[in-house]
Hints:
Blueprint: H1 2-7, E1 26-28, E2 32-35, E3 38-41, H2 50-53, H3 67-82, E4 93-95, E5 101-103, H4 104-107, E6 132-134, H5 142-147, E7 152-160, E8 172-182, H6 184-187, H7 213-235, E9 241-248, E10 251-261, E11 264-274, H8 276-281, E12 288-295, H9 296-304, H10 317-320, E13 343-350, H11 358-369, E14 373-383, E15 390-398, H12 407-425, E16 428-429
Parallel strand pairs: 4-7
Antiparallel strand pairs: 1-2, 2-3, 5-6, 7-8, 8-12, 9-10, 10-11, 11-12, 13-15, 13-16, 14-15
Helix pairs in contact: 3-7, 3-9, 11-12
Amino acid sequence: MTLLRKSLRFFAVQCRNCASKSSPNVEFTASTVDIDGRKFNRDKWTNVNPNILKYLNRNLHLKPGHPLCLLRENIISFMYKSFPNHAGNPIFSVFDRLNPIVTTKQNFDSLLIPQDHPSRTLSDCYYLNKDFILRGHTSSHQEELIASGLDSFVVMGDVYRRDEIDASHFPVFHQAEGVRLFAKHQLHDIDKEKVELFENGKRTPHKQEHHTELTSDKLQHELKTCLTKLVHHLFGNDVETRWTETYFPFTHPSFELEVKFQDKWLELLGCGVIEQQILYNAGVPDKVGWAFGLGLERIAMRLYEIPDIRLFWSNDSGFLSQFQGATPNQKITYKSVSQYPQCFNDVSFWLPEGGINSSDVYEIVRGVGGDIVEQVRLVDEFLHPKTKKRSQCFRIIYRHMERTLTQAEVGKVHERIKAQLAADLGVTLR
Ligand code: FA5
Ligand code: MG
């Protein structure tokens, strides 16, 4: 078994050029999407667009002096320090340059995500074609890294999702994934306890059928201790946090950790006990483990009091200069360069037969409007009593992060968005 795992070690290839390049060479032909010389055949799944692909290779988490880079360094140094081996060296390996173009097998199948799971839909992800996708989470790399022989690793990188638009959601963001596996003697004190890792039991809300009660308890305890320590390391011991139970197809039991931010609970991460089937599939039937995935922007927003997720993409020196030269655990409070005013315009339309998907609206608005779009909200919806036609009204809030927008300038963009909505979705503007 060990041999098989070792021989796969080279499977996880880090993309060495990733850090140095600014934007990829992208070409859309009639039958392919070409990215930096790699050709992907287009099919009915293809829904990437030039707009989203321009974020590939930006690698904010590797850009010296960027708040996401400082946070990456801070988390890595915490993991290194917290988990030494008996010689004092870190047990965690770090992968922060893995290519974000992954197979649908990696992104879904390897994680036991069912065929009909909503996270697979075209309205949630960016597909190159039916076999390749811009990874929707760093969990895509779990199985390949476990199969390559690793027991403890962290993956950091950019992930892509067609999501809502507001101050804490952006279609590209960054995640840090942590995985730790345990052999029996690493989890249980086999000299003192007469215990087994596995049993042929029942799945309950608290454990998987293959795990003994004690195995599941200890894994949950190790996981929550690690994450609580990390959060205290980042935010200080006084931070207000809470655990909630949740569901992921790849962990059981599963949890989320939230922190108080501007008087609201903000979800920082998802985590849980790795589904044993994933370890069987990766060729590691004799170990158990935990995993977590956290959102770097969410943490950095709370840490540096950055009010809007779009600021991370700013090239404005007013933003970047506040972090240049800082050390990873330096306390920095972001000072708003200036609060430029918002402009908002509404767009109302009749839906075509069969309706539309609001994530297509968000995508088009973001595609045409770019980063000046701060929020898109469905503000009104009604059914015409006679024609039975349904109408929707979306409010688009515009704000530039670096200057005041004029109403005339916004008006032009808004008209282009309306035209694009009509052309692409078949809606009838009102
Ligand atoms: C996941 O992505 C799971 N892969 C996490 C996981 C890993 C669970 C390993 C179990 C084991 P989720 O979709 O909740 O879960 O995203 C994880 C975190 O990413 C969230 O808690 C949040 O901090 C961040 N996040 C999610 N969507 C966005 C978004 N659109 N913009 C910014 N951050 C986001
Ligand atoms: Mg979540």
